[in-house]
């Protein structure tokens, strides 16, 4: 049965949003809605213009018989700046101060509203770059990695500090903790989790000394793979030299006063990486 244009636009928009970075042939929409390709093209122009105006992303068209349309859920820099300011406002509060100068993030890591925005913002940095996988360690970084992976439309892999029977055979490495250079720790990754020669984005919640990220970099090298980039929610105060230098952070913890329980958070270097 032929579909009304208003219904077609709603259903088409939903399909595009659920399939980011997926090349969708116009024939799929044409058959689904029993409409001519010319009508589908007109509809997609409306969606494309609306997405661009509202900052939802953009539609990439690929000409030719094997072509189609692809939704790229990239945020523009203005929207990312507004989002980072929202994060700063949310985190600049004494109730979020934890021992050691850490900031409490667990509630946000369980809130879909924040996770969607965090994932989309981080993914925007790597759109236009070949990425095969998103990696994190088995802590609070897991939901972040899952969200970033969705918007990049790639798998995410979880590095563990202790092996699980269900992981099968693993590759393990020892690494020096960045915040305590006299402590050696271990991390492992299932051999089936990451293909050889992959291009990997690393994400995590916090960066202090950089040991965890440096360990993941070493693990990626064991798979003859390449690190595309590393991004964290916040970099914490660290007195010393970090073991990793090439990273981006949405936020930066500038100062912590445990006596009067005050914390100051500002924008990290993530925004400058978008220039």
Automatic annotation (TrEMBL):
InterPro entries linked to this entry: PRTase-like (IPR029057), PRTase_dom (IPR000836), Pur/Pyrimidine_PRTase (IPR050118), PuR_N (IPR015265), PurR_Bsub (IPR010078), WH-like_DNA-bd_sf (IPR036388), WH_DNA-bd_sf (IPR036390)
- Any one Pfam family here would be PuR_N
Keyword terms of this UniProt record: DNA-binding, Transcription, Transcription regulation
One BP term from GO = negative regulation of DNA-templated transcription
Q: Report the domain of life of the source organism.
A: Bacteria
User: Can you give the residue ranges of the Phosphoribosyltransferase domain?
Assistant: 117-254
Q: Which GO terms describe its molecular function?
A: DNA binding
Per the database record, which ranges form the Bacterial purine repressor N-terminal domain?
Answer: 4-73
Output the PANTHER family linked to this UniProt entry: HYPOXANTHINE/GUANINE PHOSPHORIBOSYLTRANSFERASE (PTHR43864), PUR OPERON REPRESSOR (PTHR43864:SF2)
Which family, according to the similarity comment?
Answer: Belongs to the purine/pyrimidine phosphoribosyltransferase family. PurR subfamily.
Subunit annotation: Homodimer.
What protein am I looking at?
A: Pur operon repressor
Q: Which organism is it from?
A: Alkalibacterium putridalgicola
Gene responsible for this protein:
purR
């Amino acid at each position: 049965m032929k579909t009304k244009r208003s219904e077609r636009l709603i259903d088409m928009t939903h399909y595009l949003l659920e399939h980011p970075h997926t090349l969708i042939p116009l024939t799929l929409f044409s058959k689904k809605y029993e409409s001519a390709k010319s009508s589908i093209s007109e509809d997609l122009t409306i969606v494309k213009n609306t997405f661009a105006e509202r900052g939802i992303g953009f539609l990439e068209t690929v000409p030719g018989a094997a072509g189609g349309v692809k939704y790229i859920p990239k945020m523009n820099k203005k929207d990312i700046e507004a989002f980072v300011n929202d994060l700063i406002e949310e985190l600049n509060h004494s109730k979020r101060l934890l021992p050691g100068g850490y900031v409490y993030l667990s509630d946000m890591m369980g809130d879909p509203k924040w996770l969607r925005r965090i994932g989309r913002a981080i993914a925007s940095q790597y759109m236009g770059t070949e990425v095969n996988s998103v990696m994190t360690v088995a802590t609070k970084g897991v939901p972040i990695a899952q969200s970033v992976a969705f918007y990049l439309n790639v798998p995410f892999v979880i590095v563990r500090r202790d092996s699980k029977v269900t992981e099968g055979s693993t590759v393990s490495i020892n690494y020096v903790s960045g915040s305590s250079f006299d402590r050696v720790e271990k991390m492992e990754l299932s051999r089936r989790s990451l293909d050889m020669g992959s291009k990997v984005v690393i994400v995590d919640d916090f960066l202090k000394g950089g040991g965890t990220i440096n360990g993941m970099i070493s693990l990626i090298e064991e798979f003859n793979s390449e690190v595309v980039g590393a991004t964290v929610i916040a970099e914490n105060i660290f007195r010393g030299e970090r073991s990793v230098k090439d990273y981006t952070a949405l936020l930066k913890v500038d100062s912590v006063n445990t006596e009067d329980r005050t914390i100051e958070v500002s924008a990290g270097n993530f925004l400058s990486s978008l220039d």
